[in-house]
Amino acid sequence: MVKIADMEEEYTEWDQFSSESCETLKWIPWFTSLEGHEFLLEIEESFVRDQFNLSGLKSLRNYNGAMSMILGPAPTEEVFMDGKFLELYMNATDLYGMLHSRYITTPIGLRLMREKYQQGVFGQCPRVECQRQNVLPVGFSDNLHNHRIKTYCPRCQEAYVIRSGEVHADIDGAFFGRSFPHLFLLTFPNLIPDQPPVPFVPKIFGFKVHNINSLIKIKLENGEFGKIEDEDSNSQDEMKLD
């Protein structure tokens, strides 16, 4: 069994080796620039060093070594051939992810996530009737290694699995947590879609199929998307005014 102290000592050697070739490139900007990490924000070092933000995280595996890696230089390709380095790298990834779930709920984190959301970085809702509504990342658990990341659509208010072939599919859902999309929309209510989702209408040879209601239609009837004005009643009111 490898002791944490031994791993930290070996990491110090990798630290010196990396700094010669990577010079000023730090681990955090390197990590967030990797393919598949586009959803992640680059956390400020001051946030990482703040003991208040680390509350409850020091019990994570190889915490000291992982923290040293996060605050250190970017690694070189050669060190990824070392099994001990890979183990510590996974520990650093977990620690960074848990810090990330806290950072995105701060005022600056929310603003940065808003930029990504408005740019469509997180993708669009796969539901056709949502008309390519931008989605938000969400986790189904606040604990590591329970669920992969999902996406949440503010229009139909449903969560969707990211296709296994996509580069973001393997991100741990705990890196965003269960509360993020809802806190995000409470913070930026202007980003909540004005129009409710349109339910899909099943038809056979052009005729509507009765007694088959979609989940969206049921939610609309139950008022889960807020008060929806009836088009027929609106037209009748207009006729009365005339």
Automatic annotation (TrEMBL):
It holds the Pfam family CK_II_beta. Keywords: Kinase, Transferase. GO terms for molecular function: kinase activity; protein kinase regulator activity. Gene3D superfamilies: 2.20.25.20, protein kinase ck2 holoenzyme, chain C, domain 1 (1.10.1820.10). The keyword Manganese does not apply. GO terms for cellular component: cytoplasm; protein kinase CK2 complex. Tetramer of two alpha and two beta subunits. Belongs to the casein kinase 2 subunit beta family. This is Casein kinase II subunit beta. It comes from Theileria parva.
